[in-house]
Amino acid sequence: MFPFIWEWVWDAGHYIFFGGMWYVLIILTVGLNWCIYKALKDTKEGKGSGQGHH
C-alpha cells in the first residue's frame, strides 16, 4: 500500500517504521555530506596528497 491510496491507515506500526526509515536516511545523508566536505577541504589544503606521508 502507498500513502496516496485511500485505504491507507496511519497506525503505530507505520509511524515507527517510517520514523525509523527517515532517521536512518537523515543520518546517512549527514554522514555522506560530512565525508564529502572533509575530502574537499583536505584536498584544498593539500593534506590528501599521500606523497611522503605514512
List the helices and strands and how they pair.
Elements: H1 12-45
Description:
- The chain has 54 residues and is mostly helical.
- Helices cover 63% and strands 0% of the residues.
- It has one helix at 12-45.
- The radius of gyration is 21 Å and the shape is rod-shaped.
In short:
The protein is built from 1 helix and no strands. It has one helix at 12-45.
- Portion in strands: under 5%
The assigned structural class equals mainly alpha
Order of helices and strands: H
Output the radius of gyration.
Answer: 21 Å
Number of strands: 0
- Low-pLDDT parts are none
What composes the largest sheet?
none
What form results from the Cα inertia axes?
Answer: rod-shaped
* Separate helix tally: 1
Helical fraction = 55-70%
Please report the distance between the alpha carbons of the first and last residues: 53 Å
Mean of residue pLDDT values: 85
